[in-house]
Amino acid sequence: AARIIGPACRSLRRVLILEPPADAAALQIRSEYLKAFRPRFRPVRYGPHMRGPLEPSVARTFRGRSYSERLLASDILAYRLYGGTAKQLGHYWSLVRPYGPLQAQLDLAIAPQWGNTLNNVATARIPAGTTIYEGAAASQTTGVGHLPGGGSQIYIRYVDPSWFIPGS
Question: How is the chain split into domains, by residue range?
């Protein structure tokens, strides 16, 4: 029995925890699973000392390539500035509501040549059961100058459009 149960549990964990949910129903199943079997989930810290699950190009966007992986036990609000070539739906968010475009550009080190005008703010309710990767935004040196970064940055592999709060 142990030869069957062990692989089955690993497969269930992979489907419920590691893979992005296919739809809202899958997210609900993940949330219920976590409530029943994982009442506490401690963040796992990754960085130069321990390579994490994010691609190197994404890990580089965090200061020192250091970030935490956290499975949300409850819903959180996240904010995203967008405009120009940057769309409302994206992977990069912040836990801190921005004071304005300039502050966001400095804190999140968003270079003007990337095409994000930062004119709009989207607010989303990220549901319990979602895995986020959080840390300080890495600094950026551009042809125009230096952007210090250091602001709250989260990366979400799968963002469901239904999470957006209208009129935010």
Answer: 1-39, 43-163
